[in-house]
Write a structure and sequence with these properties.
homotrimer, about 350 residues, alpha/beta, Udp-n-acetylmuramoylalanyl-d-glutamate--2,6- Diaminopimelate Ligase, Chain: A, domain 1, UDP N-Acetylglucosamine Acyltransferase, domain 1, 3 domains, 10-stranded parallel sheet, 5 helices
């Protein structure tokens, strides 16, 4: 497909410095875009690439315009503007409707005629597959689960029984939704499993990354609100609630009965302990441990970061005695106070 | 199904304060249970919900009895008692025996007539599927593997070759058992893979959470003892041994050749380095790093926890010089000692 | 199969102290190897087992020769020598060529006649499956992807569209290659997904552990160079580049646009933040957080390690005030300086 630069400027609401009839046929990085490609500049780390770019045009901020050797699309939020251009040039493709001969669809399941059910997938009893849903190869949708309009299960996804998934939900390969929560209790040294009777509700416009797991609730449901974006290999425990438009980066670990507010950003590999409540608009940077609730919006951190191994060993050895160190400092202060 | 309160009190060995003929048809949370539902109270975080509950009856401790506005089932261990009630009201369902037409069962495999082999699953050469085993849709059981009586593989599970799985083992979706351990050695800058000749043995009554991976041993077997409960996305390296009735929470990372004792509890996202030995009855809280063996039962911790980002930055900057700080403190102490 | 000790000594280039005609039929640990098995000794942790071994022969260093009660195969690098012996005695088995009747191969796909396409697998449009490739049960290879000569996809692997995989690549069960990178941008409080137009390139001789995920690039490709070895449950974000012969242990988290050099070793559960550049020959120990680029080869660490829970609580409480502690120490030093 080909687009005119003027058309793109209009679509992304940018101010065009250049020829509106210039033909654009795709996007590329500053380093590698060719003369029919659009690029973008938002990260000063890559400033040197702007000056030598051979892209047809670059989406950027007004303050970077003079450094741009080619046409500019000037925007207040160039990354968002660029994103819109990419989305415009790469619309989501719909799949051909129909059930592949090798797919197994239970007789009591209901599959919309516009849905695409791929090879070797399985749809359980009384499951409901909505309009334009895509169920990729090797996916399993178990009994009584509902997949809303326009949702996509990429490949080898497992949706357990009685799960409710909204519209336009994108579920990447290897995801498991609705495994039993980790509910056990001890009886004379042995663990007794507690049946997990709740479900998982996933609202509209949620994305779920590859190999992520979201457990079903013990009694009530685990709930992922509208527009939540979840990266790969995230674990969400039973009865947790993730507020609308929150983003969770890769390998974050959210234990059971956690409540996260709206518009939060949870960094990669961050772990949140059970029963924690996090208010709206909280940012937690990566690899942090959260063991107390967060009542005030803001940015929170708790990761240990690297040094050379020798320094780390010495510092960790001291850390193990940090409390004593503090007590010794207090003693020194007291002595000085007395002597002064 | 409906149950009488008196019947439930007997099943869970609780002291009933109320009408034994009261009809119970399910369980619910204190907040939401209706007048035909049983609830429980064990976490003081939720004390306000007890006072206003509309449940038919609540399982609780004797000291909370007076705060309960409805019938009580008084127990010394109310969570355990509640668990037993839920289990009684929700017995495990057996699946219809038979091999689905789309399942591929090798001719040399042996499948018990009571087993249920679901759509698009695969059973390899000489594999043995025991009595009442459930192999869910999309599961793969490779050559020579044995699945013991009453075990369940939920969906898209991969059991590699020559694996031995005991009775009543529950394996959630996406689990991989018996991938090669990470055994490599370096030859002039390149890695040489060491064939992994061991297997995985999983004893009776083990539960394994979604997308967990348990590697096969290098020479001898990786071993998961009886009654171990493993949450989602846990990694267990080759030749590790997990002692009976140990519980491992989500996303814990257990490297190779680790030995964990009986009745331990390993917190979520905790990582245990290779060749570590942990004795019985050890609790390790979440997000901890374990780099030394643990010889004494007790509770151990090593997670860094969050503060606001600014405080964290300042503290981490100081931490990088903690050793110097300690040396400076010593110098101050010496100076004071001399001057006094 | 049976081997003579002299033959093995030659294969692994070791100095044999013993009978070259001694028959070896396998390998075992020092503790358990029988009189027809080869063992090895490299880890002093297990010194006591060397003295009482009943193996036929042991691969070891010259300095340990005198402690060995049985035949010795003396090598400068006994672990490498042992690895070579194991590889020699356990050559990779080739699978019978052919497409299983239950596999679905698109008519436009090209599958080499020597490839083995197993039960319930799926090969998409225009995909290319090379010579001697093994596509295990339940695997999905989507449209336009290429699997090079001799590569193996074990089971339930998902290779998304337009991915390029080299020769002799080993991909364990549950792996997902080419899911969309986590590219989102915010528009008035809601997240907008940025189409991920790049691919994943995996070069020759790469191993990828179970349930690992490697995302496709946003514009250009995510790249795994030759001979990289990746353990289980590793996450590699979009546009990251992993240099040749780097090894990445289990559950490491590599965010987007990270560049890791050649011959690095990344410890288990270590997390590397986005846009970080790590030079060649860097070792990062496990559970570390990397938030700055590393320009010098060497060993780096940043994990917090456990103490008993009480000590940890006290130390963490002090850590939250470490900056103040340092300021107080400075004040004490100043006071002492003035008074002296």
């Amino acid at each position: 497909m080909q687009y005119k630069l003027g058309e793109l400027a209009e679509v992304i609401n940018a101010d065009l410095k250049g020829d509106p009839d210039c033909v654009i046929s795709g996007v590329g990085t500053l380093q590698n875009a060719g003369s029919d490609q659009l690029s973008f500049f938002t990260n000063r780390r890559y400033a040197r690439f702007l000056k030598s770019t051979t892209a047809a045009a670059v989406v950027l901020s007004v303050e970077d315009m003079n450094d741009c050797p080619v046409y500019s699309l000037v925007s207040k939020d160039p990354y968002l503007a660029y994103a819109k251009a990419v989305r415009y040039m790469n619309p989501e493709q719909s799949s051909d409707p129909g059930v592949h001969a090798s797919a197994i669809v239970s007789v009591t399941a209901s599959v919309h005629s516009s849905a695409c059910i791929c090879a070797n997938s399985y749809i359980g009893e009384h499951a409901q597959i909505g309009e334009n849903v895509y169920v990729g190869p090797g996916c399993v949708v178990e009994d009584n689960s509902v997949i809303g309009k326009g949702s996509r299960l990429v490949a080898n996804v497992s949706v357990c029984h009685n799960i409710e998934i909204g519209e336009r939900v994108l579920i990447h390969a290897g995801v498991v939704i609705g495994a039993d929560g980790f509910g056990i209790t001890n009886e004379e040294g042995k663990w007794l499993k507690i049946p997990q009777l709740g479900s998982v509700e996933i609202k509209d416009d949620v994305d779920i990354g590859a190999n992520t797991t979201i457990d079903r609730g013990a009694l009530e449901n685990t709930l992922i609100e509208e527009g939540v974006k979840i990266d790969n290999q995230v674990q969400i425990g039973h009865n947790s609630i993730i507020g609308a438009y929150t983003a969770i980066a890769g390998c974050a670990v959210i234990a059971g009965s956690v409540t996260i507010g709206k518009r939060c950003m949870i960094g990669g590999a961050t772990a949140i302990a059970g029963h924690i409540v996090i208010t709206d608009d909280v940012v937690i940077t990566g690899l942090s441990g959260v063991t107390n609730s967060i009542k005030k919006p803001g940015t929170y951190s708790g990761a240990m970061t690297i040094t050379d191994n020798l320094t780390w060993r010495k510092n960790m050895a001291r850390f193990r005695h940090l409390n004593e160190l503090a007590i010794r400092l207090k003693a020194v202060e007291d002595k000085l106070d007395k002597s002064s």
